[in-house]
Design goal:
It is built from three helices and no strands. By secondary structure, it is an all-alpha fold.
Amino acid sequence: MDFLKTVLRVSTESLIAGRSVRLVRDHIEADLVRHLERVDSELLAIVVRQTGLAHDIATALAHHIANLQAGRAVNGKTLATRARQIEEKADRIAIDARNEVTRFNARRSSSNS
Protein backbone atom coordinates (compact mmCIF):
# COMPACT_ATOMS: atom_id res chain seq x y z
CA MET A 1 0.00 0.00 0.00
CA ASP A 2 2.84 2.38 0.88
CA PHE A 3 4.51 1.69 -2.44
CA LEU A 4 1.29 2.33 -4.36
CA LYS A 5 0.77 5.61 -2.51
CA THR A 6 4.31 6.63 -3.40
CA VAL A 7 3.74 5.76 -7.07
CA LEU A 8 0.57 7.84 -7.17
CA ARG A 9 2.20 10.79 -5.38
CA VAL A 10 5.35 10.74 -7.54
CA SER A 11 3.31 10.38 -10.73
CA THR A 12 0.99 13.24 -9.83
CA GLU A 13 3.79 15.56 -8.73
CA SER A 14 5.84 14.73 -11.80
CA LEU A 15 2.97 15.31 -14.23
CA ILE A 16 2.21 18.65 -12.60
CA ALA A 17 5.90 19.62 -12.76
CA GLY A 18 6.16 18.47 -16.40
CA ARG A 19 8.88 15.87 -15.78
CA SER A 20 9.57 13.19 -18.36
CA VAL A 21 7.86 9.82 -18.13
CA ARG A 22 11.27 8.12 -18.20
CA LEU A 23 12.43 10.10 -15.15
CA VAL A 24 9.25 9.20 -13.29
CA ARG A 25 9.61 5.53 -14.22
CA ASP A 26 13.22 5.52 -12.99
CA HIS A 27 12.15 7.08 -9.69
CA ILE A 28 9.37 4.52 -9.23
CA GLU A 29 11.68 1.61 -10.09
CA ALA A 30 14.21 2.85 -7.51
CA ASP A 31 11.45 3.03 -4.89
CA LEU A 32 10.34 -0.50 -5.76
CA VAL A 33 13.89 -1.84 -5.37
CA ARG A 34 14.20 -0.13 -1.96
CA HIS A 35 10.86 -1.60 -0.88
CA LEU A 36 11.82 -5.14 -1.94
CA GLU A 37 15.22 -4.86 -0.29
CA ARG A 38 13.53 -3.79 2.95
CA VAL A 39 11.18 -6.80 2.85
CA ASP A 40 14.12 -9.15 2.16
CA SER A 41 16.12 -7.57 4.97
CA GLU A 42 13.24 -7.96 7.42
CA LEU A 43 12.84 -11.65 6.59
CA LEU A 44 16.60 -12.22 6.81
CA ALA A 45 16.65 -10.51 10.22
CA ILE A 46 13.97 -12.94 11.42
CA VAL A 47 15.99 -15.92 10.21
CA VAL A 48 19.12 -14.57 11.92
CA ARG A 49 17.22 -14.05 15.20
CA GLN A 50 15.84 -17.60 15.08
CA THR A 51 19.30 -18.98 14.36
CA GLY A 52 20.71 -17.03 17.30
CA LEU A 53 18.07 -18.45 19.63
CA ALA A 54 18.76 -22.00 18.44
CA HIS A 55 22.46 -21.33 19.04
CA ASP A 56 21.69 -20.12 22.59
CA ILE A 57 19.87 -23.36 23.40
CA ALA A 58 22.62 -25.50 21.85
CA THR A 59 25.32 -23.61 23.76
CA ALA A 60 23.47 -23.92 27.07
CA LEU A 61 22.98 -27.63 26.46
CA ALA A 62 26.65 -28.12 25.54
CA HIS A 63 27.75 -26.35 28.75
CA HIS A 64 25.34 -28.45 30.77
CA ILE A 65 26.71 -31.68 29.28
CA ALA A 66 30.32 -30.51 29.73
CA ASN A 67 29.63 -29.72 33.39
CA LEU A 68 28.01 -33.14 33.87
CA GLN A 69 31.01 -34.86 32.28
CA ALA A 70 33.39 -32.84 34.47
CA GLY A 71 31.50 -33.88 37.57
CA ARG A 72 30.38 -30.34 38.38
CA ALA A 73 27.00 -29.59 39.89
CA VAL A 74 24.31 -28.84 37.33
CA ASN A 75 20.70 -27.80 37.54
CA GLY A 76 18.56 -29.43 34.89
CA LYS A 77 15.51 -27.41 35.94
CA THR A 78 17.37 -24.16 35.30
CA LEU A 79 18.41 -25.39 31.87
CA ALA A 80 14.86 -26.51 31.06
CA THR A 81 13.44 -23.15 32.20
CA ARG A 82 15.94 -21.23 30.08
CA ALA A 83 15.28 -23.45 27.05
CA ARG A 84 11.52 -22.97 27.48
CA GLN A 85 11.96 -19.17 27.64
CA ILE A 86 14.05 -19.21 24.48
CA GLU A 87 11.54 -21.48 22.74
CA GLU A 88 8.68 -19.16 23.69
CA LYS A 89 10.61 -16.20 22.29
CA ALA A 90 11.31 -18.14 19.10
CA ASP A 91 7.61 -19.02 18.83
CA ARG A 92 6.63 -15.34 19.14
CA ILE A 93 9.13 -14.44 16.41
CA ALA A 94 7.81 -17.23 14.18
CA ILE A 95 4.20 -16.09 14.68
CA ASP A 96 5.17 -12.49 13.89
CA ALA A 97 7.02 -13.71 10.78
CA ARG A 98 4.01 -15.75 9.62
CA ASN A 99 1.75 -12.75 10.11
CA GLU A 100 4.16 -10.55 8.16
CA VAL A 101 4.37 -13.06 5.29
CA THR A 102 0.57 -13.44 5.29
CA ARG A 103 0.19 -9.67 5.18
CA PHE A 104 2.77 -9.41 2.40
CA ASN A 105 1.06 -12.16 0.37
CA ALA A 106 -2.35 -10.54 0.93
CA ARG A 107 -0.99 -7.26 -0.37
CA ARG A 108 0.52 -9.01 -3.37
CA SER A 109 -2.69 -10.98 -4.08
CA SER A 110 -4.93 -7.95 -3.82
CA SER A 111 -2.68 -6.02 -6.19
CA ASN A 112 -2.94 -8.88 -8.72
CA SER A 113 -6.75 -8.72 -8.74
